[in-house]
Design brief:
The chain contains ten helices and 16 strands. It is an alpha/beta fold and 339 residues long.
Length: 339
């Protein structure tokens, strides 16, 4: 397949991409979180082709991207609580799971009676959705299991020749996928953490919990949210997370650098103590937003290094740190070394 690379994002070129969406084709679009592999969410064949292009399991549901929060009325059964969230967080990196209407095909929801709804704040994504005139189902635009793409270059690595067009939107602002929550009457549950945190959501929904699969392996055979069930976000070399106090972690990293051909992913403050060979940092110890922004880019950079293993600092599980923790623990296949 010949992939059209759209590097000039004026309206005329976005209209070309929108026409492809209308025709049932696949278009990669930038969002504020990561790049998304988009198709008309109402077109069963186009949605099926999304799974094929990614090599994605057919029991991992997709998120439906809309131009406006109240467009959800066409595709889902909304509630007063949904609109409270929309007023505070939309457009933005929040996905809300609602009971679906019949117009949304089961190919999008993997047979579930719920649909995940999001309104991206990225201007290119917004324009593409508006010009397409349809909801766009879009998972992250990476080969299944790989780190999600946060730049045009990442997308080309994985999707060139697999999709009809890729739109260049530069680096994504956030760097990890949206927060996903499911509503239950007047309560809610976080299924996947992101930039919008538990603490922020609790201001709107006092009765909110975090699903145990955020930090542990998912036991459900039919997860309601993407990113819950499978090993995700992984570079080609195995990843091991390292947990303990700073002094012992630095000593552990030094030993591994002496004795193994390994990569190290650490906080900015750690770097001065370590050999710079195959060493990457992804933000300060307490700068969780930078960690989120840099994480997938750093994991992809290890693929250009000939390392046998990657040892990474275990981040905080508070605030935005919970999103970084969630992505890293899945990249590592839940392998944590305590030192």
């Amino acid at each position: 397949m010949q992939t059209l690379l759209i590097t000039n994002t004026d309206k005329q070129n976005i209209e070309i991409a929108a026409k492809l969406i209308k025709e049932g084709k696949l278009v990669v679009m930038p969002t504020e979180t990561v790049y998304g592999l988009g198709a008309n969410a109402l077109d069963r064949e186009a949605v099926t082709n999304v799974y094929k292009a990614k090599g994605r399991p057919m029991d991992n549901p997709l998120i439906v991207h809309l131009a406006k929060a109240d467009d959800a009325e066409k595709y889902a059964h909304t509630s007063e609580l949904y609109y409270k969230l929309a007023e505070r967080f939309m457009p933005g990196p929040l996905t809300v799971i609602l009971p679906k209407k019949d117009v949304i095909p089961y190919e999008v929801t993997c047979g579930l009676e719920t649909v995940a709804i999001r309104v991206p704040s990225n201007g290119i994504a917004h324009t593409l959705i508006e010009l397409s005139g349809c909801p766009i189902a879009a998972p992250s635009a990476n080969l299944s299991g790989r780190p999600s793409p946060t730049s045009f270059e990442h997308v080309i690595e994985d999707m060139n020749g697999r999709v009809d067009a890729i739109i260049d939107g530069g680096r994504c602002d956030v760097g990890v996928e949206s927060t996903v929550i499911i509503l239950k009457d007047n309560s809610a549950e976080i299924l996947r953490p992101g930039l919008i945190t538990y603490e922020e959501l609790k201001d709107v929904i006092p009765d909110i919990t975090v699903n145990e699969a955020v930090k542990n392996q998912c036991t459900s055979s039919k997860p309601a949210s993407p990113g819950m069930k499978y090993r995700h976000y992984a570079p080609s070399s195995p990843v091991y997370l390292v947990d303990g106090d700073d002094e012992r972690i630095i000593a552990f990293f030094k030993e591994k650098q002496r004795n193994e051909n390994c990569g190290i992913l650490c906080f900015d403050e750690d770097a001065k103590y370590l050999n710079k060979t195959n060493l990457l940092t992804f933000g300060g110890h307490f700068d969780e937003e930078k960690q989120a922004h840099e994480l997938f880019d750093m994991l992809r950079k290890f693929d250009s290094m000939t390392v046998d293993a990657i040892y990474a600092r275990l981040p905080s599980d508070k605030g935005v740190g919970l999103a970084v923790y969630n992505r890293l623990i899945r990249a590592a296949g839940f392998s944590i070394i305590k030192v």
